[in-house]
Write a structure and sequence with these properties.
The complex is a heterodimer of chains A (504) and B (512). Chain A has helices at 4-13, 29-39, 76-81, 90-100, 146-151, 214-225, 233-240, 286-289, 321-338, 372-383, 402-411, 465-468, 471-479; strands spanning 17-20, 44-47, 55-58, 108-109, 117-118, 136-145, 174-184, 188-194, 205-210, 244-246, 253-254, 259-265, 292-304, 309-312, 347-351, 360-365, 389-393, 419-421, 444-448. Chain A has 504 residues and is α+β, with helices and mostly antiparallel strands. In chain A, helix 2 (29-39) links the parallel strand 1 and strand 2 (44-47). Among the domains of chain B are: 122-315, Electron Transport, Fmn-binding Protein, Chain A (Pnp Oxidase, Chain A, Roll); 353-499, UbiD C-terminal domain-like, CATH 3.40.1670.10. In chain B, helix 4 (104-115) packs across helix 7 (241-249). Classes of the chains: A alpha+beta (504), B alpha+beta (512).
Amino acid sequence: MADLRTHLDRLDAAGDLATVGERVHWADTAAAVAGEAARANGPAVRLTDTGGRATLVGGVFGGPDRLAVRSREPWARIGAALGLGHDAAYLDVLDALVAARRGGSDPEPADQPAATADADLRALGLPAVDGADVPGITLGVAAVPAPAVENGTDPEADPPETVPDGRRTDPDAVRWLPVCGSVHGSDGLRLSVPAPAGEVPDGTRVAVALGAPPAALFGATMRWLGESHVAGAPRIADALGPVAVAPTPAGAVPAGSEVLVDATVARTPPSGTATETHPTGAPAPWESAVPTATLRARVSGVRVREDPIVPFSPTGAPMADSRHLLSVVASARLYGRVNNYWGVAPAEWLALPVEAGLGICLVASDVLYAGFEWQLANTLFSFSRLFDKVVVLDTETPPMDLGRAFDDVWVKAHPANDWEFSDSEAPAARAPHYRRDGATGANMYVDATWDPRWDEEYIAPRVTFEATYPEEIREAVRADWMNLGFDHGPEYDPTRGGDTDGGE
Amino acid sequence: MTHNRPSGSPATDGGAPADSLREYLRALEAAGELNRIDADISWNLEASAVTMLANNRDDRVPAFESVTDCQVPARLVGDPYRGSRGRPWDRPARALGLPPDLSGDEYYRTVMDRLRNPVDPVVVDAGAAPCKAEIRRGSDVDLFSLPWPYIHAADGGRYSNLHTMVAPDPDSSWTDWSAHRAMIQDGARASVLLLAGEQTPNLFYYRYERREEPMPVALAVGVEPAAQFTASMWIPTGSDEAAFAGGLKGEPVELVECTTNDLKVPASAELVIEGRIMPGERLDEGPFGDYFGYMHGPRRSMPVLRVDAVTHREEPVIPFCVEGSGVGYSLNTTSTTEVACIGPDATLGLQAAGYDIERCVPWRFTPRSVYVVSTDVPRPGYLHELANFIFTTWGMLHVDFFVFVDADVDPLSTRDVVEALALHADPDSDFHQFGAETMPKVPLNIYQTPEEKGDVETGTSKSKTAKAYIDATSDAESAAEPAADREALRERARSVLDRAGVNLDPGVTSGG
């Protein structure tokens, strides 16, 4: 894997990066343009004239929805970012993330980061997201000294404010966090971080990397969404990468980052300034997945690469990067867990579709025995509080074939006995918009699989191209297709040229 | 696969509504949307296979000009009304003389407006009726001389499945237009899927049968588009189907009396099968790949249509639908008429019944069973009442589910609906009537075992089911009107992207 610039080159080569040269101001229009491109299933959008020093790019991890057949997959840019190629299969992406949980080797140390030129924070032109008119930070990676995070809640502890010289490229001396936030005044930061980092003491040094190598962002996100046995973020990143790290007082930072913001935690605002701590702008989806806290910090310096590029997520817009990022990371996490839980690997694929706001979990699984679907659904509920709806699909359902999944829900699941609702004692899910007061309620799952107790004769064959016609007719029609005068080849097939076997 | 129509550009002019199927096909051809295939094609699975692949690949509509093994020089056209994936109403719009690039919103409003204004038909003499260019009666009739397609390899036989069945009410002057598949049995007989317990015209037939009388019937094959669309709609009982077809078209539909009975059929039909559905006679019908996307079985005994005459145009064009291919991402004629015809019709019907809904639109991936209704909720119990009104009337057998969304959610936008379902429908309180097994069901559902579906005897399902509805409307606290300046900003953003030549695909939306 490589840095952000390499990723952008790949997107460009794949025809998935558009450039807007006219003035699109960071304070209002930039996020709106990226938001509209995301909403309308467009490419990533590079904004070169924003009134600030940085070039802004929206959608580097985004993608179109899968509620129609499109020229690229929702996860294509993430696949490219992971070095798997723009045309990576969904399962390749999941498998890569699952494998990376174990971590790779220690990241290679570099003497200094690529970002060496001094810059002014406000002059960068970080985009105001969600109409807030305040410079925003999205898709950021924060480096914080490990003891500050580990011991921050202990009133007796006095963790050092910086990482000692000599350990500033040590992956065990630092914690990388996914971070978003906003800029206030000339040097104020309000950051949203995973909760344990919210207790770091005043004076602790923090380094916020923008435009970090994608592997670092994934590593940071995976670590905090993951279980305790998941490797530290730098090693996860290196497993996806490799990623080089450079020293800062806050600890190792991804060396290839576009922008490095050096700051110091300062909970107490300067006198005469507002005491509000929450960042301005819509919360990032990952903030629903883990408990978060807010952190105030004061910026002491900003360094940038030449012609810095800052990727951002138009958070709040449908299909924004941050939703895609969480969707893939959370899906991989759950996919890895259910396939390593019972000693068998029943799940063919699993997804928290971006299209459903991460409020539904689709899982295509073998139904090992009658009642396994109940067990599977409830295991998923116990692993994640993002959703309260699970749909269990047959393994023949192609990965991310939402057209099939959201058809099977209605036709294969008996409304009288395949839609199951728990009692009302389940904790509230975090993605949905109801019961935001945290009141308990019901979970539900839909069993859209064939009943394993049914004899084969009860299983209705699907009407598919493969199942409906004999092989000689299928082959002849495919072979003659263009000669018959048609225009659309296999790339237009809902299954991308590989019609599934209609047999169930 | 993306549609890069610049925002704000005016819709192109539509033409005149098509007076016949072949005129509609010529319009498709002029627009580059028809593929006339001159190569020899067999009716025996081959035409269907080509059509299914065209459906799956969102390619041009196939018209088969040279069909082998048929004595009458007839032609086939596969799923002629299939819409394009991005804008499923576009070809029906063209058929009705509307601009094909009409937004979904504009299409629905226009069609509903037309349905509010029926236009009485005109009856023409037999000599002026194109469908009577050739007439065969009695022993001259041979259904197998025509290239009825064998559509799925596991079907029980060859089918006519894209026609308008004209059948009379024995107890009134009402004539019903509907769509019922018919399996060709031999030269002079077909078996027709008429499930007992369904609505008209099935009820008509079983009343005739109790009197031991045959029911006169006509299968009008390849009728003009407006007539075919009307046959798929739920027209108020007792209303004149032909008048609704005329309203839809904006002009009178021409009818002609049958040669061997006094039923009237669209004069523009490509082919008409005149006959009687006999009391007390049954033949096997099915299995058949049906609209759920699965093979429907078991084989049942179904009423017999005895053919008295076949009339047709010169070189008739026989349309067929690859049923079962209009699920998931793919469209066919059935799924297209769902969104283009049933949707506006149901919206109008519910409004006429006093429900002030915005729009009723079928669920994108599943024909006939699930509908999305955008509506305000003006009082407690409103959604319950609305859902059960439909469950107990025209949706009695086929409709199993409703998803209710806010009035400002676009039910044509699949993504908006999926998001509403995921983020606004609380399993604790918003899923209603699941779990009950008290309601009637069409025995085509695949979630029922063959045992539950009933046996070879004519009958409806032996089991019952739940009819459920989901309240995916937002809570009052979380619903917020977008600020006017937010909308202006979005419009500016779209203009920026437009000027930069960025290729966007909003997907299926009312604004599309």
